[in-house]
From TrEMBL:
SUPFAM superfamilies: Putative methyltransferase TM0872, insert domain (SSF81799), S-adenosyl-L-methionine-dependent methyltransferases (SSF53335). This is Ribosomal RNA small subunit methyltransferase H. The lineage of its organism: Bacteria, Bacillati, Actinomycetota, Actinomycetes, Micromonosporales. It catalyses: cytidine(1402) in 16S rRNA + S-adenosyl-L-methionine = N(4)-methylcytidine(1402) in 16S rRNA + S-adenosyl-L-homocysteine + H(+). Residues 316-371 are annotated as: Disordered. The gene is rsmH.
Amino acid sequence: MGELRGTHVPVLLERCLELLAPALDRGGRTVHVDATLGLGGHAEAVLQAHPETVLVGLDRDTEALAHARVRLARFADRVHLEHAVYDELPEVLDRLGYPGVDGILFDLGVSSLQLDAPDRGFAYAQDAPLDMRMDQTRGVTAEEVVNTYAHPDLARVLRVYGEEKFAGRIASAIIRERERARITSSARLAELVREAIPAPARRTGGHPAKRTFQALRIEVNRELAALETALPAALDRLNVGGRLVVLSYHSLEDRLTKAALADRVRSKGPIDLPVELPGSGPTFRLLSRGAELPGEVEVAANPRAASVRLRAAERIDPDAERQRRTDRERYRRRVKAMHQPGTGSTGSGTGPRSAPGDGTGTDEEGEGHDY
Ligand SMILES: C[S@@+](CC[C@H](N)C(=O)[O-])C[C@H]1O[C@@H](n2cnc3c(N)ncnc32)[C@H](O)[C@@H]1O
């Protein structure tokens, strides 16, 4: 394996390690899944920090897997590397014989290996064949998308996945051009997009082709469909105390992540009942307050981190959580009763200073109230 093209600094590495540590450091063997192995930067740090942890690393890009295999060679006896799309995680874990796992990381999007490769067509700044497949062994290329999609489909891809205001104009320009000659190169596409955007708008919001390239990449790799299936499946495979960390790089990924977590952290019982019914309580608690952003120092050192949003959650034991909430509710009622007229107490500060499960200062109470 030759030298890597470009460099890759794992994004929010220290924060990811901090969040995963309680789940991976529980004595004995634990299992961590890196669902987007890439060049193995996060995975290497996890393996270094947790000598008892087994890693299951997935990537749909065979080239990334080959690089990660070299990088992680010294941990080979506790590493499984799999060529798979992350929505295939349940099948991979079944095949390897891991019914439950303790840590899962999704570091979404493209790697610097893919972005910097002159021959893969991800980057608008380099001329290359319009491919953009993360898995070059299967699927349609960006060239096929731009040369075959009808105007409404092309415009929808650019508007929805690229949040591109000028989606209709760009789609029209693409269709006009392909009637003249097939569009085969990233440089030609970037030029077409630039020409289709009104001149004043070209000067704002980065390179004019950035949003179109992002949209095509998402479409070619069916990124959002895979993520929508993969997140619930990943949450289902976490052991109690297990933790999931997701790094998203655009709002659509972050919205899917937020929705998948919201579904698990809320009670499904009737809202007017003071206690949880068995089986209706939350199965996860949030570890991040809303979406965490990178610090200025990290962004300065690693421009790829600029758009990152981190969300994390831990699987909880619903029965223990139900008991804790019931205890807390009983305690609240007792305190309330003490303050009622005629109960002999005026709340003069002589009441209990703490009680089991009183909920004071629990971290989950302060977390994630944007849901
Ligand atoms: C941002 S990079 C990961 C970098 C990695 N954390 C590191 O430290 O080197 C994202 C990786 O996820 C892979 N990937 C993206 N979507 C995927 C999917 N649906 N299934 C499997 N791998 C995917 C890409 O091929 C890429 O290598």
